[in-house]
Design goal:
Largest sheet: 9 strands, mixed
Strand order of the largest sheet: 2-1-10-9-11-12-13-14-15
Shape: globular
Number of helices: 15
Strand content: 15-25%
Oligomer: single chain
Radius of gyration: 23 Å
Length: 503
């Protein structure tokens, strides 16, 4: 049996039921999904892909990219989605580390991808319009495919998450991880075959790829599929939809759009927010304007979803709700590991079938992040209030979440420090009305250097993905430090806390 795809197949509705509707109105049915993933799986096998091989995909969002993910599952391969915003030098690290058998990239970029891929790696293309060599290969293949046997503990995907040291870690997600979490969300969020989900999220990370897509598949629901988020298009889609999953930035932009005032929300039953903290004022403004309380939840690349505000019952602003069924969550003293109570703030740790199996080829790092009893150390600081709601109060790993995407300061600082005229830098996240947090660089110039903000930003254009690039660059004579010489980023946050405030 193929653990994940057998589950998908067992819960599929009739072949003619729509699974996905494109922006141009074209529909992909569940029967089409079976046929097209079968053809793609045959094409992958024809390229030499074997069970356990990695298939890396740095492509734009498209229905075909989702089908590629499922084809990898059926072929027993390990899907490795990469942010299309990554620069070539960033992608090179992932390819060297994961050693994929096949790399999928946009048409026209295959030559440069071949330049950084291993000699025995096959490079094929996939465009956002459904074009490309892998689609052409699949077109000549039969739709029937004998799914490769995969057990619950076999890998289905590797998602890279940046490390505070700058070296990215590949989180290994199994068939069992993805299946169990999707089943839980279908039940907890009450998804059925009658649901229509607005899908405007990226599909290179957990939220858009697994939370949204797997939940739709395992409920037999339908998606309205948008290549990118556009407030006007989403508002127009509300009357034909029942649910939306988004990041806080979505809700901020929708609240700012004049079309929301006349939006028809009669059919909408659920608005979900995640990937970054939802401000209490956004929660309140949305409820006042629409009558709907946003359901905020908490997850990670390594764990999928851990907690959720209730579907029935009060959704509390500033909290991420309760541990999901099957998930154990505790708050401990970071120094001693002792379990804390009474609303004490400490390190959040989780355990459950949703938790990943470890970091790719990093056994020592994996061992550091897990306790012998199976609890994973999230790196997030939080507490459990008197009503049992979990609150996230900070991040022990200095992570910045900008527009729902993870940015680790060390990686950005390393690139800034390489620029001529820069002595050192510190990168912090500051409250931003649109992105949740704005990546902000504080730079110390070398003596006599005349480098300015524009020069720093130009220097990073081709070295970092756009979402990692600073929104602003500030200059200081020296960085604040404590007696041990460590940069006091809390002081910098206090100094510049109003930098992005409107008005």
């Amino acid at each position: 049996m193929n653990h994940l795809f057998d589950l998908v197949r067992s819960r599929m509705p009739e072949a003619g039921k729509p699974c996905l509707e494109r922006e141009d109105g074209r529909v992909l049915t569940y029967g089409d999904l079976l046929a097209e993933t079968g053809r793609l799986a045959n094409a992958l096998v024809g390229l030499g892909v074997k069970p356990g091989d990695r298939v890396a995909a740095q492509v734009e969002k498209s229905p075909e990219a989702l089908l590629l993910y499922l084809a990898c599952v059926r072929a027993g391969a390990v899907f490795l989605p990469l942010n299309p915003g990554y620069m070539l030098r960033e992608v090179e690290y992932f390819l060297l580390d994961a050693e994929p058998a096949v790399v999928v990239c946009p048409p026209g970029k295959n030559a440069e991808m071949e330049g950084i891929a291993a000699k025995d790696c096959r490079v094929v293309t996939l465009g956002h319009k459904g074009d490309g060599s892998v689609v052409e290969l699949a077109a000549g293949q039969p739709e029937n495919f004998e799914d490769r046997p995969r057990e619950a503990g076999d890998l289905a995907a590797i998602l890279y998450t940046s490390g505070t040291t700058g070296r990215s870690k590949g989180a290994m997600l199994t068939h069992g991880n993805l299946a169990s979490n999707a089943l839980t969300l279908v039940d907890y969020w009450r998804f059925t075959r009658d649901d229509v989900l607005i899908h405007a999220l990226p599909i290179f990370h957990t939220h858009g790829l697994f939370v949204a897509f797997n939940t739709v598949l395992l409920s037999g629901a339908k998606m309205l599929f948008f290549q990118r988020f556009d407030p006007a298009e989403v508002i127009t889609a509300f009357p034909r939809s029942t649910a939306m999953m988004g990041v806080p930035t979505f809700y901020v932009r929708l609240l700012d759009h004049p079309g929301l005032a006349g939006a028809r929300l009669e059919t909408m039953r659920l608005f979900v927010s995640g990937s970054a903290p939802l401000l209490a004022e956004t929660f309140s403004a949305w409820k006042e304007r629409t009558g709907h309380a946003i359901l905020e939840r908490y997850g990670m690349t390594e764990t999928n979803m851990n907690t959720s505000n209730p579907y029935d019952g009060e959704r509390m602003a500033g909290t991420v709700g309760f541990p999901l069924p099957g998930v154990d969550l505790r708050v401990v003293d970071p120094a001693t590991g002792e379990k804390l109570g009474g609303e004490a703030i400490g390190m959040i740790e989780v355990r459950g079938p949703n938790v990943f199996s470890g970091y790719w080829r990093m056994p020592e790092k994996t061992a550091e992040e897990f306790h012998p009893d199976g609890f994973f150390i999230t790196g997030d600081l939080g507490k459990i209030d008197a009503q049992g709601y979990v609150q996230i109060v900070g991040r022990g790993k200095d992570l910045i979440i900008s527009g729902g995407l993870n940015v680790y300061p060390k990686e950005v600082e390393t690139e800034i420090d390489l620029l001529p005229g820069v002595l050192e830098s510190a990168v912090i996240g500051l409250a931003h009305p649109d992105f949740g947090e704005g990546v902000t660089a504080v730079v110390v110039r070398e003596r006599g250097a005349e480098i300015d903000e524009a020069a720093v930003l130009r220097g990073l254009e081709n070295r970092l993905a756009k979402f990692k690039q600073p929104k602003r660059v500030m200059f200081v004579e020296e960085l604040p430090r404590n007696t041990m010489g460590k940069v006091q980023k809390n002081v910098l946050r206090q100094t510049y806390e109003g930098l992005y405030r409107k008005g």
